[in-house]
C-alpha cells in the first residue's frame, strides 16, 4: 500500500461522514416526486399500448436502481409483447411512432426523436416537471440497472457514496456525456470499482453458488449472469475487516484520491466485471476508431448538443493542483499539450468528433463518429462498450482536475468540506 502524506485524520473522516449523511437525506427524492413518476409511467404505458398493442414500460437507470437524486430524469424502456413485436418494429420506427403520438398530447413538451443515437430514444418533458428518456427493447439496460441495484443492496454506504459523487459531478459540470464528460452510469461504475478494491463490495459477476463455472445467460449477445440473491451473499463472500471498518468519509476520500493519483489513465481500464483493472491492451482499446456517420446521426447529434449546455472551456480551478507533485497527470491530460484556453488539439491522425484526416475542405469531409479510449470504463455486460467513450483530451483534463481538487479539499480540515467540494462550478 502506498504511503499517503495527505491522508486525513480519523476525526476528519468522521466529520465528512456526518455531513455526508445529512447531505444524502437532503438529496433523497421526496415521496411526492415518486408519485409523479409513477403517474407518468402509467401514462406512457397507456400510450405505448395504444400505439403498439400490448406493451410494457419499465423504468431503468436511477428510477430503477434506487440511486436517484431529487429531480432526477426518468429513464424508461418500452418492450413490445404483441404479435406486432420487436421483430417488426425497428428502433427508428419505434421512436418515430411513439414520438409522433406524444407530439399530439399537450401534457408533453420538448419532444426530441433521437433516431440514430447509439441507442435510439425519445426525450421529453412532462408538464408535471419530470424529464424522461424513452428507449426501446433494451434488455441490457434493465440488467445493468439490476446489477447496480444489487450492489447497492449489499451495503448502505454504496448508495451514500454514489449519491454524493453524482451530486458533486453535477455541481462541477462534469456529468454530461453529450459535452465530453461522463454519464452518471459511468460514475457509479467508478465507485463500484473502488469499493471492490477496498474490500467493501464483491464481484457479483464471479460469484457462482456451488463453485462451478460462470454460467452463460445470453442477453443481446452478452453474458448477463451475476449473483443477484444478495440476501444470501454471506454464504459466498464476506467483506474484509478493513472493508467493514471504513466510514463513508474515508471511502469518499479514497474514491477521489484513487482517480486523482493511483489510476493510470494511459494504460488502465476499469472493469467491475473482472473485479479490478484490465489494461487497454488486453481490451484492444488502444487506438481510437472512427466510423462513417450518416446524415441522420449528425442531425441527432446537433439536436442533442443544442439541448445540453455548451462545452465548458474553463481550466480546472486554482485549487486543482495534483495532490502529489510526483503524480502529475500523464501527458495525455496535460494542459501544456494544447492551447491553454482551448480544448487540447488532437494529434495528427486523431480526428476529433467531426473531423477526418482528409485534406478536403470541412464541408466536403464525410462526418465520423469516434470511439475514444482516453478514459476506459468497461461496461459490465456489453464488454466492447467503453462507457468512458465521450471523454476527449480536454474533458479528461477537466475531470482529472476535479478529482484532484476533491481529494485535496477532503484531505484538509473536514469542517464544511462537503459543502466546499460541491460548490457549483461557473
Ligand atoms: N446506460 C448504459 N450505457 C451508458 C449510459 C447509460 O447502458 N453508456 C444505461 C444504464 O442502464 C443506466 C441508465 O442507462 O443505468 C441510465 O444512465 P444514467 O442516466 O447515466 O444514470 P442514472 O443512474 O439514471 O443517473 P441520473 O439520475 O443522473 O440520470
Ligand atoms: Mg438517468
From TrEMBL:
Residues 247-293 form the PAP-associated domain. Residues 352-361 have a biased composition (Polar residues). Residues 16-152 form the Poly(A) RNA polymerase mitochondrial-like central palm domain. Belongs to the DNA polymerase type-B-like family. It comes from Entomortierella parvispora. This is polynucleotide adenylyltransferase. It comes from the Eukaryota. It is found in: Cytoplasm. Residues 291-309 have a biased composition (Low complexity). Residues 284-367 are annotated as: Disordered.
